[in-house]
Specification:
This protein is an alpha/beta fold and about 280 residues long. It is built from 9 helices and 10 strands. It folds into 3 domains: about 60 residues, no CATH class; about 120 residues, Rossmann fold, CATH 3.40.50.300; about 70 residues, Beta-grasp domain (Ubiquitin-like (UB roll)), CATH 3.10.20.30. It is about 35% helix and about 20% strand. It has a 5-stranded mixed β-sheet with strand order 2-3-1-4-5. The longest helix has 27 residues. The radius of gyration is 27 Å and the shape is elongated. The structure holds guanosine-5'-triphosphate and magnesium ion (MG). The site of guanosine-5'-triphosphate has 17 residues, from helix 4. Magnesium ion binds next to helix 4.
């Protein structure tokens, strides 16, 4: 016990000695640091508190990392993008999955009907998007047995659909998602919108483009590319030799009055463009 230590300091030190988990040790150490005597003879003590704090922070970080790495339900990403549906129980996640895909998840009015990730394919005008319903969010989701692995699936997704019955539930869901602090996700909310499929598509950073060969109708399904992609990206996607052999292209855009404008490899593509590729 240092000289002239305050009562608050002494209590914190006692808590530190009694603490059983790294998290509790860390909490006590933080109080000890704040309440430690500031005079010269306490320098060694403060140094020790700092070092010990770092030690427990490292232990906690490692524990968290191990949990994150746990992947009982690891998902193979498929399609142009992965979209997850999250929310507390009975918010209609399975109902939405059923409306947008061919999946037949169990839908019931009892709680926690969905117990494992339901993986389905959402076909948006020919573009295949992976749509996954995750088992219901609960308070302290990350601390549940499979929480870290479910959050791992959110982590690798491109878009998050949050379902909630009220503002509190919405806020709580977002809070649970904060465990993924290294990736910023785009989040949208479903409230029964009739055009929700279009809303999902608009929130993915993708364009769909139809290719055509001269004299032929446009090919189906469309090719999906990242927003900002050019004719060069499209040509490369269609065939590995197409960039080399490319002579010029023609584009018919949505809402364009006169179609068939001549374009080069650098031309940026827009959603629903039809691109005719002319080769040497
Ligand atoms: N009133 C109302 N009921 C709905 C709606 N969507 C779903 N339900 C009902 O709510 C219950 C739960 O729906 P689910 O789609 O299974 O909900 P969930 O979020 O998947 O639930 P868990 O998987 O159990 O977490 C079912 O009885 C549905 O019929 C809705 O928009 N309005
Ligand atoms: Mg469900």
């Amino acid at each position: 016990m240092p000289v002239n230590a305050s009562l608050e300091y002494q209590l914190a030190e006692q808590k530190y000695r009694e603490a059983e988990t790294p998290a509790d040790k860390l909490k006590a150490l933080q109080v000890m640091y704040a309440k430690a005597p500031k005079h010269k003879s306490a320098e060694q003590l403060v140094k020790w508190i700092k070092e010990t704090t770092k030690k427990y922070k490292d232990i906690l970080a490692k524990e968290k990392q191990n949990k994150k790495g746990k992947s009982k339900y690891s998902i193979k990403k498929e399609g142009a993008a992965t979209v997850v549906i999250v929310g507390y129980t009975n918010t209609g996640k399975s109902t939405l999955l059923n409306e947008l895909t061919n999946a037949k998840p169990l839908i019931a009015d009892y709680e926690f009907t969905t117990v494992r990730p339901e993986i389905a394919t959402f076909d948006y005008k020919g573009v295949k998007i992976q749509l996954i319903e995750l088992p219901a969010i609960v308070d302290d989701y990350f601390d549940t047995v499979d929480g870290p692995s479910f959050l791992g699936i959110v982590r690798l997704s491109e878009l998050v659909i949050v379902m909630s019955r009220n503002e509190t539930e919405r806020r709580k869901t977002l809070k649970e998602l904060e465990y993924i602090d290294d990736v910023q996700h785009k989040v949208i909310y479903y409230n029964g919108e009739k055009n929700f499929a279009d809303i999902i598509w608009r929130n993915l950073s993708l364009v769909k483009v139809f290719t055509k060969m001269p004299g032929k109708p446009k090919a189906y399904p469309p090719v999906s590319l990242k927003k900002g992609s050019t004719v060069k990206d499209l040509a490369r996607y269609v065939h590995k030799d197409f960039v080399k052999k490319f002579k010029f292209g023609r584009v018919w855009g949505r809402g364009a009055k006169h179609g068939g404008t001549k374009i080069s490899l650098n031309h940026k593509l827009k959603d629903d463009d039809v691109v005719e590729l002319h080769m040497k």
